[in-house]
Design brief:
alpha+beta, 4-stranded antiparallel beta sheet, 4-stranded mixed beta sheet, single chain, about 230 residues
């Protein structure tokens, strides 16, 4: 198969620097809708990191990148248009960014947290086969399996760009960690859980059947406390 150019990065959003001048008005307005100041700052840092990463891939100034959305609302590059697909997810202080050439890609990351009735919640997103496998698990493993299953499904739905319009019970990814080859929406997807840290679940999905491992890199930045550039409103 042709090269995907797939690259995946993690970002520590409590260490990542941020510069509001890089961001568009719509990016800043979207972050301002978040109620908690810490969540707003992390969202802004995530989008700053996205611009820096895409600029390195495109060989341009991060300020010159312009975004648009598909008809279904998925973010896409408007300028420079070079066939680079990307996706961003963040949860808590953890950011996850992926980019690939000329093929759809999606990522999802979730901080693991307690959930009331984890089996009941998991069954609401599981296919019949996934549900049968989940019901066989020890109770102690159900919560972890929910986050693994959820991030794998979300990665596929985000790659498609129609996540809000598809019932996750329609997407068969399997609750088992590791790699799955998924047939959905008349396409083939490689879906893989990513080892980020013990406190988070993460996954990536890319169009096509990959025969290479997914490598996750760290987007390096310096921790310097609260970035004053993020404390002012646009």
């Amino acid at each position: 198969m042709r090269s995907t150019g797939l690259k995946i990065w993690t970002v520590n959003l409590d260490c990542s620097s941020g510069d509001l001048s890089l961001l568009s008005t719509s990016e800043r307005v979207r972050a301002d809708r978040l109620k908690r100041p810490q969540d707003r700052d992390r969202s802004l840092r995530a989008h700053c990191a996205l611009r820096h990463i895409l600029a390195l891939q495109l060989g341009c100034d991060p300020r010159h990148i312009e975004f648009d959305t598909t008809a279904a609302g998925k973010p896409m590059l408007a300028r420079p248009a070079q066939g680079l697909q990307f996706n961003l997810s963040h949860s808590g202080r953890h950011g996850l960014i992926a980019a690939a050439k000329d093929r759809c890609v999606g990522v999802d990351i979730e901080v693991r947290r307690p959930i009331t009735d984890p089996l009941g919640v998991t069954l609401q997103i599981a296919t019949p086969r996934e549900a049968r496998l989940l019901k066989q698990l020890p109770t102690s493993q159900v919560l972890s399996s929910f986050f693994d299953l959820w991030t794998r499904k979300e990665a596929v739905l985000k790659a498609l760009g129609r996540g809000l319009f598809i019932d996750p019970r329609e997407v068969e990814v399997g609750p088992e960690p590791g790699r799955s080859i998924v047939k959905f929406d008349e396409r083939t997807w490689t879906v893989e859980s990513l080892a980020i840290s013990s406190g988070v679940a993460a996954a990536a999905a890319i169009e096509g059947e990959l025969d290479i491992p997914l490598v996750v890199s760290s987007h390096e930045s310096k921790c310097s406390g609260v970035d004053a550039r993020l404390s002012s409103s646009p």
